[in-house]
Amino acid sequence: xxxxxxxxxxxMDARELHKLASRQKLxxxxxxxxxxxxxxEIDRWVWDTLNEFNxxxxxxxxxxxxxxxxxxxxxxxxxxxxxxxTMVMPLNVHSQDAVLRGLVDxxxxxxxxxxxxxxxxxxxxxxxxxxxxxxxxxxxxHPRQPLPYDIAESFIIPGLTPAGIPFGAEDGSLSRLFFLIxxxxxxxxxxxxxxxxxxxxxxxMIDMLMECxxxxxxxxxxxxxxxxxxxxxxx
Length: 235
Prior knowledge:
Layout: H1 3-10, H2 14-22, E1 29-31, E2 34-36, H3 39-48, H4 55-69, H5 96-109, H6 116-129, E3 138-139, E4 155-166, E5 174-182, H7 186-201, H8 205-210, H9 215-230
Parallel strand pairs: 3-5
Antiparallel strand pairs: 1-2, 4-5
């Protein structure tokens, strides 16, 4: 993609993107004096810097990506991926490794995984590269790239621990709320990450989810927020 195409894809100002590229803060290469961007590298850049975007920027990214891939940005995408009886509440574990295993076990029990150990390995490798604890009290573990042959279908497994877990947050804070995100393709993956970040960006939303006492209450709270969100075009 060139600058103009990238600006459309991310719904961002071309001048700002040019500035980031010039400062080597955006993955790109220069050909004939022009910056050229590879979609898969841009997607990973968005994943890795998700916490640096504000709500309006996340909305723009989600809509730009949805338009690019022919998705409808005005329908729920998070709640349909949370399969019945897969929420892990409470998630009674005390380490990062145990969190990942607990979430993967839930997906495995629901028949959503073909290769459990390979998925676990990819999740651990992602955390070693860069922690997914990018929001206060929340981590979004996911493979660095989609694993279409390891999973039966795209899914999200929420988990909530009674107490905080050290999950590698940059500020050293603990995480209690987890969303294991596994998608079969890159276009779904980026769309899902942007949407869930927008859901959690609402003031007080993370606390509301952490205060839920049952999977039913958690699911209803999440669904209400997503429906509320897609009904708003200007936040």
